[in-house]
Every structure is written in C-alpha cells, then in structure tokens.
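Input structure tokens:
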C-alpha cells in the first residue's frame, strides 16, 4: 500500500508519518519510509541523530544509477539518459518489491531499528533553491515517482511517504501514485486552504484524499474541521504531551502514546487497508502513461532529443504482469558499468 502524508508546513506531516510507520512496524508490517519533503526530517523523527540523517544517501543524487537498474532489458528504453522521471515500466523493466534485497535499496535505503521492528528509509536528499518549481527534470521528488511507478506492493506491506503539499508534487504525477493520501490539517483557515487546493488538483485524477486533523484541542476544533472538510475528515489526532516530550529529546515508548492518539493511528491503518479494495492497476498504469506523455511534450522530448512517447509499452500493466518481475542481481555500480 502506497501512502502519502501531505499538508501545510508545520501541520505535523513528519510527526504523523513517523508515528504511523512505528504503528505499522509494531503490527509486524513491512514498511519502507520515504522522506520526500523539502524539509528532510523523517530520519530524525524515526530516531536518527542529525549526523546520521545528514549521512543518508540521497535518491536525487543517485538517479542515473537507479534508472540504469530499473530499465533492465526494456527494449523501449535505449539508455538511462533517455529515461525521465515519468518513464513508465514496460516488459523487460526491473520492478521493485517492498520485501526484497535489490541494488536500489542497497545503495539508497538505510535500515532503521525501532523498538517496534526495523524499517527501511529512503530520502530524496535536501532540496536546494534550484529544485523548487523551476525545471521539472531537476526535481528531487522525481526519484520517488520513478520508484513508485516500478514498485509492486502487496496488501500488508507499506510505503509511507512524508511529502509536502507544495507545487512540486503537482509538477508531475507524483500526487497520483498513492493508494491513499492523508492530508494533515490543523484546525485553522490556513490548514484548510491547503486541503482545498489539494482537493482541487486531485479531483480530476480520482486521488483518494482523507483529512487527518492534527493538534486538535477542543470540541470547537473538531466542529471547525467537520464544518470545513465534511466527509473528507477521517479522524483527528490531539495535541499530544507525548509528541512534545519526543520533541524535547526524550524517547518515549510508542506504548505510552495517549490511547486516543494510538486509536487514531489504528484508524489510519484501517483506512489504508480498506484502500486495497479500490486499487485499479490499469488506471494506475494509465495515469503513469498520461503524466509521462505530458512531461515528454512539455520538456522531456526536447531534453532527450527523441520522442519519449515511444517508451510506452501498451501491453504492460504494473502488477498484472508477473513475467516482468526480473529481480536482477547486479549491483547499481555494475549496472552502470
Ligand atoms: N499532535 C501534536 N501534538 C503536539 N505537537 C505536535 C503535534 N503534531 C506536531 N507537533 C509539533 O509541531 C511541530 C511541527 O510538526 P512536524 O515537523 O511534524 O510538521 P511538518 O508538517 O512535518 O512540518 P514541515 O513542513 O516543517 O516539514 C513539531 O514541533 C511537532 O513536534
Ligand atoms: Mg516535515
């Protein structure tokens, strides 16, 4: 299950992503955590020191090798240079699974030992000025889109992505790559305006968006969210002393989280699990192709110097074609060589 946390800056995306990841790990579920936010905070939120977090490999910096691996023997993709962030997989492409060893994880993912169990963390790397909204091909989150488009994940395994709600995710198809998107909103007008904007973008693509109220303190807060968000409101997470203690440097056990907030995490998990029934591999693949063609036309063809529409394998549907599951054994470096 591919899950995203989006929302306004400071709304609690990282806090809730990290807690959700820990809750899933506690339930024994395999999890890949992805830090795709402008502010790279997920590592520390999962217990890494700042130095450890700063030493995480960056997906953005490894894109050429990732592309080289993923293209595999796909005859429609002549080289890694011809592959843009939206180039969809086809027959011969290498696909990723949540639970496996592969050269992409070996090079880019780091295991994080939690009390609840171990998860893998992937990080896009810190954003710089030139990443933001300028040129699509610079976009660091492009690596995440590429990985999600090549990932086959099952019902009880999760990718949880901490993401911004900013324009970067709408510059391509990233916002459509999730089975469920949690929009974290504080009970304020600004929190709600980000929700409205996201919903507007998402509507045409059938994105499943649920609002998670955060830092909800009083009945008035809940009433405000209900009034502004209506049925899109899934649940709320309260203002938490546990989170505050975490922020102060303590390492409180997940089992000590306020029971109401722990129940909220369980509600998120139930919603994620329920989203499985809504999956449509054909639609998912068709949307990947749609965004690829859009990117190809707007900048990809010019950048690469060929018609990238030819990269689309019309016979291929992600998740329905087991025959393409070539796991490959060559390392990323070897693939490049
Ligand atoms: N439910 C909560 N109770 C108490 N404090 C909270 C809660 N949720 C978040 N916070 C605090 O609010 C601040 C912002 O939270 P967080 O970093 O998770 O937000 P974010 O949306 O990821 O922000 P950014 O956009 O900067 O990445 C942090 O100091 C965090 O500890
Ligand atoms: Mg954050």
């Amino acid at each position: 299950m591919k899950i995203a946390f989006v929302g306004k800056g400071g709304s609690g995306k990282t806090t809730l992503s990290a807690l959700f990841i820990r809750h899933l790990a506690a339930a024994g579920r395999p999890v890949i955590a992805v830090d795709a936010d402008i502010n790279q905070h997920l590592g520390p939120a999962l217990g890494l020191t700042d130095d450890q977090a700063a030493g995480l490999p960056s997906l953005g910096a490894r894109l050429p090798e990732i592309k080289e691996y993923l293209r595999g023997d796909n005859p429609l993709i002549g080289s890694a240079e011809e592959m843009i962030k939206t180039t969809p997989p086809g027959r011969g492409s290498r696909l990723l699974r949540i639970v496996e060893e592969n050269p992409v994880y070996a090079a880019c993912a780091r295991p994080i030992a939690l009390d609840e169990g171990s998860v893998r963390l992937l990080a896009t790397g810190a954003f710089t000025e030139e990443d933001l909204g300028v040129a699509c091909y610079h976009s660091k989150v492009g690596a995440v889109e590429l990985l999600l488009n090549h990932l086959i994940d099952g019902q009880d395994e999760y990718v949880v992505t901490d993401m911004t709600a900013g324009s970067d995710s709408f510059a391509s198809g990233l916002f459509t790559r999730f089975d469920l998107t949690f929009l974290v909103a504080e009970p304020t007008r600004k929190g709600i305006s980000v929700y409205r904007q996201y919903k507007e973008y998402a509507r045409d693509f059938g994105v499943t968006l649920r609002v998670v109220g955060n830092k909800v303190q009083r009945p008035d807060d809940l009433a405000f969210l209900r009034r502004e968000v209506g049925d899109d409101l899934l649940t709320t997470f309260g203002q938490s002393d546990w989170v505050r203690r975490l922020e102060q440097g303590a390492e409180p056990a997940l089992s000590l989280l306020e029971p109401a907030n722990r129940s909220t995490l369980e509600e998120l998990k139930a919603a994620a699990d329920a989203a499985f029934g809504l999956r449509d591999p054909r639609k998912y693949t068709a949307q990947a192709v749609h965004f690829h063609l859009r990117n190809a036309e707007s900048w990809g063809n010019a950048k690469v110097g060929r018609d990238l529409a030819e990269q689309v394998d019309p016979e291929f549907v992600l998740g329905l074609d087991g025959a393409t599951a070539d796991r490959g054994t060559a390392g990323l470096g070897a693939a490049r060589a």
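The longest strand covers residues 209-216. The CA atoms of residues 14 and 42 lie 6 Å apart.
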